[in-house]
């Protein structure tokens, strides 16, 4: 159940109650594609850096170790020793990213594993079955994620198919949740709005999927090639047609600036690989902008990555030491940068929630953006 606590303009301060605990929103979901955050980050680490909810990837876990294996081991929570909420994406985006290896049909998608080339079929029912085996808290509907620059005719056909697939997902999830041997019989389902950069297609699709009264709604197919301005334009157009009284999730986004702007447009769930991916390359986020710790100017810099930061890296280590680790290709350097970045994101979300509660979100956003410019 989603509880809308406060609105400041369109910015929402909410609370999602799940079988695995409460998620305070707006929230950033820390991305653990293969049931782990890249960068040697443990679930104990996640608790220490204020992670509320972790995101894992349906396609990758289906390929390795196999969702049946995870099921036999008690589901994803037990498998990775994480007792808080987990969202699993549907595999739809991987189908998009594996464009050279797949064929889309009405029944689903035929494609080849990126690991060993074996043939895989995934449709709405298969995606729901895999996610039920994983026993995540929130399952995403299986959709087609067309290129944001696809022509109108293709986009119309694609979105109509995604709408039909969503109905199949809902029917299959209702069936799976009714079975006595299902691990998580309270699994939630989020639908996904598609339509590229065509406002009218997006709005029509949003109106259609809202009628299904799902647990939450995502805006997909953005941050895949279009400009930030186009993304914001689409959010302004479509979010008002998604139910305010349900979570609104912008998939795969993004930078701190993207998140700050999207919150202002009514979005309250986010995920992105940026903080961990950038951290693994020595790029760290601060309130004064992003730093590249490989730069020579940090060779003798005894300050923490950010003064006052309480993350595991900043409490103990200097920029100079972390730079040395990175240059020496020591895994600890990468790990510390990832921990710092995730802590930065999770802390920013705390600040966002507080600002909305106090009715000063616009002021907070302006100050945060000007500091990071």
From TrEMBL:
Its EC number is 2.4.2.29. GO terms for molecular function: metal ion binding; tRNA-guanosine(34) queuine transglycosylase activity. Coiled coil: none annotated. Zn(2+) binds at residues 309, 311, 314, 340. GO terms for biological process: tRNA queuosine(34) biosynthetic process. The keyword Metal-binding applies. Belongs to the queuine tRNA-ribosyltransferase family. Pathway: tRNA modification; tRNA-queuosine biosynthesis. This is Queuine tRNA-ribosyltransferase. Catalyzes the base-exchange of a guanine (G) residue with the queuine precursor 7-aminomethyl-7-deazaguanine (PreQ1) at position 34 (anticodon wobble position) in tRNAs with GU(N) anticodons (tRNA-Asp, -Asn, -His and -Tyr). Catalysis occurs through a double-displacement mechanism. The nucleophile active site attacks the C1' of nucleotide 34 to detach the guanine base from the RNA, forming a covalent enzyme-RNA intermediate. The proton acceptor active site deprotonates the incoming PreQ1, allowing a nucleophilic attack on the C1' of the ribose to form the product. It catalyses: 7-aminomethyl-7-carbaguanine + guanosine(34) in tRNA = 7-aminomethyl-7-carbaguanosine(34) in tRNA + guanine. Residues 252-258 are annotated as: RNA binding. Its cofactor is Zn(2+). Substrate binds at residues 89-93, 143, 194, 221. Homodimer. Within each dimer, one monomer is responsible for RNA recognition and catalysis, while the other monomer binds to the replacement base PreQ1. It holds the Pfam family TGT. The gene is tgt.
